Amino acid sequence: MSQDPSTSAGQANRWLRWFSHLRIFEALHYREYRLIWFGQIFASMATWMDQVARGWLLYELTNSSLQLGLVRGVQAIPILLLSPIAGSAADRYSRKNQILIAQIVDGLLYVVIALLIFTGRIEPWHVFVTAFGMSVVQTFQQPSRAAMVGDAVPTEHITNAIGLNSIVFNVARSAGPAVAGSLIALVGTGGAYTAQALCYFLATIWTWQLRGQSYAPEKSSGGHGHGESFAKSIVEGWKFSWHNEAVFASLLIVICASIFIIPFMTLLPVFARDVLHVGATGQGLLLSAMGVGALFSSVLIASFGDRVPRVNIMLIGVTIYACIIVAFALSPWFKLSVVLMGLVGVVHVTSHALAQTVIQTYSPKEFRGRTMALYHMTHVILLLGGILIGALAAWIGAQWATALLSAAGALSMIGIYLALPRARLIR
């Protein structure tokens, strides 16, 4: 006996209403945030696809592992040099327009690479130049996009909104490389770059629908006019971040984690091949376990993150992170290492997503672009941490280097806890 179509439609609507009232989806009730979130889905997919496609393309052209490292170094230069200017720009001009321009330029760069591949004219220098260009526009895009999240929802929903963004990020981190790998196998790197350009085109459609006036920051007593120099604007942002204890504590936690703890990822191939003896397949499983843990943590943050003392949770989470990495460094068993990597994913997202939440919550609208630019500059510190752990591993071995730096990271969290007693009370 067939079911009445009207009954099926009614059941479907009831399920949709039930899902929409779940706490995890609260931020999606706001139109502006929905548009930002849907745009983020496609932009994140393109970005993570590029992590595979660019490396594969460059290795096909050069057969040089050194150049694979150099292209990552090239991408770090704009983050280091231009982030302060990008943060100030996000606080001076329309954030929506900056995102639109960045996405259009990104999409065009992907189209250029695809055309060069299809016409057989692609050269290694094309890969480096486009990598640098994309890093420039990404450097300007990130503070504006991050600040837009705080603009789009009330303060009490910022944690939920950032948690939902983290879910998108981690799903894309898992799916993007797999999609890119499949496309490269089927139609080559040109097909992958065509798909990446399409993703940015779809992201631009969502961003275009945002109300632009919502993202033109207003002049206020703590802000600035367009007549103020960029240098003064940058310095004002640094001063604010230094004197606001919530923002300062969050940045300090992320900086210490980026120097001492997170760089263990640089040595993951060493652990997979030489310590655990599981090869590239085992390394993939370790990364997948981390991705599953990160996704689980993102859901928890989106659901309950605004109910906890966030700075305390960050300090505890990063300390646990360091202890797990010490255990990972000393583990001789692959199965135990997989479990530990899952736990790493949980605490990694907890600390970083909560740091973004605190920075945005305690930064007035006119300062959000600059404070988030400082947050994104920690990517450069992470690069320096990778150099540090690599040099130390060459001297005393990967296991001891990882364990010692992670222990130093745990001690730095204890130091922050003791040095900033008022920060422990920040929610």
What is the CA–CA distance across the termini? Answer: 56 Å
What is the CATH top level name of the largest domain? Mainly Alpha
What's the CATH superfamily of the largest domain, by name?
A: MFS general substrate transporter like domains
Instruction: Tell me, briefly, the overall form.
Output: globular
Query: How many β-strand runs?
Result: 0
Number of individual domains = 2
Pick out the low-confidence regions.
214-225
Write the CATH fold name of the largest domain.
Answer: Growth Hormone, Chain: A
Structural class designation: mainly alpha
The helix content, as a percent range, equals over 70%
Short description:
The chain is an all-alpha fold and 427 residues long. The protein is built from 16 helices and no strands. The model is unreliable at 214-225 (pLDDT under 50).
